[in-house]
Design goal:
This protein is α+β, with helices and mostly antiparallel strands and 467 residues long. The chain folds into three domains: 92 residues, 2-Layer Sandwich (Uridine Diphospho-n-acetylenolpyruvylglucosamine Reductase, domain 2), CATH 3.30.43.10; 135 residues, Uridine Diphospho-n-acetylenolpyruvylglucosamine Reductase, domain 3, CATH 3.30.465; 207 residues, Vanillyl-alcohol Oxidase, Chain A, domain 3. Strands 10, 11, 12, 13, 14, 15, 16 and 17 form an eight-stranded antiparallel sheet that branches. The protein has a five-stranded antiparallel sheet with strand order 5-6-9-7-8. Helix 8 runs antiparallel to helix 11. The longest helix has 14 residues. The protein is globular. The N and C termini lie close together (9 Å).
Length: 467
C-alpha cells in the first residue's frame, strides 16, 4: 500500500472551523502564529510541513484530531519532541502532545502514570523524590511515549530489568476509528502486544502506566581516554563486560568532539574514547569492578561517582538543545576480535572519519529475556547495539550519510538480522519485515489491519495492514 501524501490539498480555514470549535487546545494552519514553533523538531536537518497541527490538551482533543484526519483521508503524525521523525508530513495532521505532560507517581504501587507529552527528565525528577527510578533513556529531553513504544533501551537499569516496553502496565490509546481505548493484557491483548515495540503504527497513545524501581542512587559516569589508545581500551572493555553482573551496564564510544565552551576543558575539540558505566550497587563494589579498566591508560577525564538517580543524565551527557545531525544504528550478532580490529580501522586514530560519535552498547541479561507479558520488541538475543552519529547542516547531508554508512557498512559481516526501531534513520527503507523479522511482522500486520486498516498512522517505519 503506497501513498502520495504530497498531493493532498491544503486544509482551508472553513474546513478546520468545526475542529477549532471542538478542541480545547490549538489548531494551527500554515501561516498561523505558532505554526512554525509547533512543527519544529529536535533534529534541525528535519522539517515538518503538515497541513494542520493540533496542539492537544486532552485525549478528547486527540480524538477530535483523528476524526478530522479520517474525514479528510489524511495521515496522522504524533510529535512530542521530534527526536525521531520520518518524512516531512506533507498533507498530514500533526498532533503535538507536549501540553499533555502530567506525571503521577504511585510510591506504594511503584508505578508512574504519564501523559503522552511527558519527557524523561520530568519523570526521573518526580520519581526520584520517592526513591524510585524508571527505565529512562540516556537523553533527558526524549519523550517517554515514543521511546517506550519503540522498546526503550535504558542505559541505567535495562540489563537487569529489560526493555522499558516490558514494564508497561496499560495505555490509553486513540485508534484510527477515533475511539479512546484502555489497553492492557486483558482488555486488548493483541493491541497491547503490538504497541509495546511497534512504535506509532497503531494509534495515538494519550497516557501510559509503567513500573518504577526502588533505585535511589547509582554508581555511574564516564572515563575518557585519549583516542590514540582506542584499541587498548576497546579490547580491555570487550573482555571485561561479559563477566560483570546484570546490575552493571556499560558502553564504549568513540568521540570527535567540537570545541564547544559548554564541554569540560579536557574534552573541547578532542578525539577521545569513553567508557560509560551505570552500576546499581555500592560505590565500593563499583569502584572495585571497574578498577582494571581505569588501569588500561591514563584518563583525560573521569566522572564516575556515586550519584543520586536524578543525575543519571550526566553519565552520557548528551546534547539537550536542538542541533543538525544524522544518525543510524544496527545490531551486532557478535563482536569477535576481527570485528574489534575492523572498528578500530573504521573510526580509530588511523582512520579519516569525521564521525562525531560511534557508540557500542553491550546488551544481554534481561534484554534477552521475554517478559511475563510478551511484546513486539524484536532485538532480544542480539548482544550489541552500534550507533553512528554525524553533526552538520543539511547542506552537507550527503557527507553525513556517507560517514555513518562507512561505519555501519564496514561492520556488516557481524550485523544482526533485526533492528532497534528507535535507532532507525528517517530515510531508511521502510521494510518493516526486515526490522521485526517475518513472523513478528506478520502478527503486527494483522493487528494493523484490525485497528488501522486504512494505514492512517503511516508516517513512520511503517507496518502495512495485512492484505
Amino acid at each position: 500500500m503506497t501513498f502520495d501524501d504530497s498531493s493532498l490539498p491544503p486544509v482551508l480555514p472553513e474546513d478546520a472551523a468545526a475542529l477549532v470549535a471542538a478542541v480545547a487546545g490549538s489548531v494551527l494552519l500554515p501561516g498561523d502564529a505558532g505554526y512554525d514553533e509547533e512543527r519544529a523538531v529536535f533534529n534541525l536537518n528535519h522539517e515538518l510541513v503538515p497541513a494542520l497541527i493540533v496542539v492537544a490538551e486532552s485525549a478528547a482533543d486527540v480524538q477530535a484530531a483523528v476524526a478530522f484526519a479520517a474525514g479528510q483521508h489524511r495521515p496522522v503524525l504524533v510529535k512530542t519532541t521530534g527526536h525521531q521523525m520520518v518524512g516531512p508530513a506533507h498533507g498530514a495532521v500533526v498532533i503535538a502532545t507536549h501540553r499533555m505532560n502530567d506525571v503521577a507517581i504511585d510510591s506504594v504501587g511503584r508505578t508512574a502514570r504519564v501523559g503522552a507529552g511527558a519527557i524523561w527528565s520530568e519523570v526521573v525528577e518526580r520519581a526520584a523524590k520517592d526513591g524510585l527510578a524508571p527505565l529512562n533513556g540516556s537523553n533527558p529531553t526524549v519523550g517517554v511515549s515514543g521511546y517506550t513504544l519503540g522498546g526503550g533501551l535504558s542505559p541505567t537499569l535495562g540489563r537487569s530489568q529489560g526493555y522499558a516496553a516490558d514494564h508497561v502496565r496499560s495505555l490509553e490509546v486513540v485508534t484510527a476509528d477515533g475511539e479512546l481505548r484502555h489497553v492492557d493484557a486483558e482488555s486488548e491483548p493483541e493491541l497491547f502486544w503490538a504497541l509495546r515495540g511497534g512504535k506509532g503504527n497503531f494509534g495515538v497513545v494519550t497516557a501510559l502506566e509503567f513500573a518504577l524501581f526502588p533505585v535511589p542512587r547509582l554508581y555511574g559516569g564516564g572515563i575518557y581516554f585519549p583516542g590514540e589508545r582506542m584499541a587498548d581500551v576497546l579490547r580491555a572493555w570487550t573482555a571485561w563486560h561479559p563477566g560483570t553482573p546484570e546490575t552493571m551496564i556499560s558502553s564504549f564510544a568513540v568521540l570527535r568532539l567540537p570545541p564547544l565552551p559548554e564541554l569540560p576543558e579536557p574534552l573541547r575539540g578532542a578525539f577521545v574514547v569513553s567508557l560509560r558505566f551505570a552500576y546499581n550497587g555500592t560505590a565500593e563494589d563499583g569502584e572495585r569492578m571497574i578498577a582494571p579498566l581505569r588501569a588500561v591508560a591514563p584518563a583525560v577525564l573521569d566522572t564516575v561517582r556515586d550519584m543520586p538517580y536524578a543525575e543519571v543524565a550526566s553519565i552520557h551527557d548528551e546534547p539537550t538543545d536542538p542541533l543538525p545531525y544524522y544518525e543510524r544504528g544496527i545490531m551486532l550478532r557478535e563482536f569477535p576480535a576481527e570485528a574489534q580490529d575492523k572498528l578500530v580501522e573504521l573510526v580509530g586514530p588511523g582512520s579519516e572519519t569525521t564521525l562525531w560519535i560511534a557508540e557500542l552498547r553491550a546488551l544481554g541479561g534481561a534484554w534477552d529475556r521475554e517478559p511475563a507479558v510478551p511484546n513486539a520488541v524484536a532485538t532480544r538475543g542480539l548482544p550489541y547495539s552500534l550507533l553512528g552519529v554525524e553533526v552538520g547542516p543539511l547542506s552537507e547531508e550527503q557527507r553525513l550519510k556517507e560517514s555513518v554508512a562507512a561505519l555501519l557498512d564496514g561492520m556488516e559481516p557481524w550485523r544482526g538480522d533485526r533492528r532497534l526501531v528507535n535507532n532507525l534513520a528517517p530515510d531508511e527503507a521502510t521494510d518493516a519485515a526486515a526490522i521485526y523479522g517475518p513472523e513478528r511482522y506478520e502478527r503486527l500486520a494483522a493487528v494493523k489491519k484490525t485497528y488501522d486498516p486504512a494505514n492512517m498512522f503511516r508516517i513512520n517505519h511503517n507496518v502495512a495492514p495485512a492484505a
